[in-house]
């Protein structure tokens, strides 16, 4: 029962926070998170492009692409 109460409080808290943030910044919380992700993705892409000598580069590019496809697919509805 406590878990259900905690989830309900979290959901209500999110929607209240989202309402305040939307009124203040004209963007929802998820829009801020997506913007942050795009900036982080671009930074990581630039870093990986400069550091071609690192063995992790190939794996990093693949992982970054997979995460980006997930993020963009989520924003675009699937």
Walk me through the structure.
The chain has 78 residues and is an all-alpha fold. It is 85% helix and 0% strand. It has helices at 2-25, 29-50, 56-75. The protein is elongated and about 50 Å long. The model has no long low-confidence stretch (mean pLDDT 92).
The biggest beta sheet reads: none
Shape verdict: elongated
Q: Any idea what the radius of gyration is?
A: 18 Å
Q: Pairing-aware structural class of the strands and helices?
A: mainly alpha
Share in β-strands: under 5%
List low-confidence stretches: none
Continuous helix count = 3
N-end to C-end Cα span: 33 Å
Strand segment count? 0
Roughly what percent helix?
Answer: over 70%
Could you give the order of the helices and strands?
HHH
Summarize the structure.
With 78 residues, the chain is mostly helical.
Summary tags:
0% strand; 3 helices; 85% helix; mainly alpha
Give the SSE map:
Layout: H1 2-25, H2 29-50, H3 56-75
Helix pairs in contact: 2-3
């Amino acid at each position: 029962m406590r878990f259900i109460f905690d989830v309900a409080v979290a959901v209500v808290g999110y929607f209240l926070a989202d309402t305040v943030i939307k009124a203040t910044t004209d963007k929802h919380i998820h829009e801020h998170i997506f913007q942050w992700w795009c900036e982080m993705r671009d930074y990581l892409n630039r870093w990986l492009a400069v550091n071609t000598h690192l063995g992790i580069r190939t794996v990093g590019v693949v992982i970054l692409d997979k995460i980006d496809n997930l993020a963009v697919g989520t924003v675009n509805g699937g």
